[in-house]
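The following record pairs a protein chain with its ligand, zinc ion.
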Amino acid sequence: MNGKTHIIWSLALGVLVAAFAHASAIMTAQLLLIAFVAGLLPDIDHPKSTFGHWFKAVNYGVKHRGFMHSIWAIILLTFIWWKLFSPENLFLIVGVSAYTLHLLLDTITPSGVCWLYPVGRISGPIKSDGILSFVVLILGIVLFAIAILFSFSLQLHIF
Ligand SMILES: [Zn+2]
């Protein structure tokens, strides 16, 4: 899945978590930043991705959609973020959720994801540059808009 799709779905997730947690404006901004970074982080293993461009994973022998796109990376990062963010568990929840969401979105593409790297590849039919990928992006935008409206409605005590 492409970067724009990962970003919009991650931000929608961040807005929803912030809304349900009745987060302050500063906390919401922090959660959105974490959602943004965590939602793009798995692709650090791709040399042309946002973070991979700096990291140059291929120089370290890291395979694209290998370890960084597996349950093992989720477990490792959960442990690291637990140490970093504890006791602020909202950061942990958004970070792990956005990272996992990235893997779920990649799973529906033909390349798929090796959840139990190096085995257990699961894939789907949605090509990253196809019309269905565009539909997933639009769904993410709609979800983001709903999340924003839901967030405002909670602040105005509509629900
Ligand atoms: Zn990816």
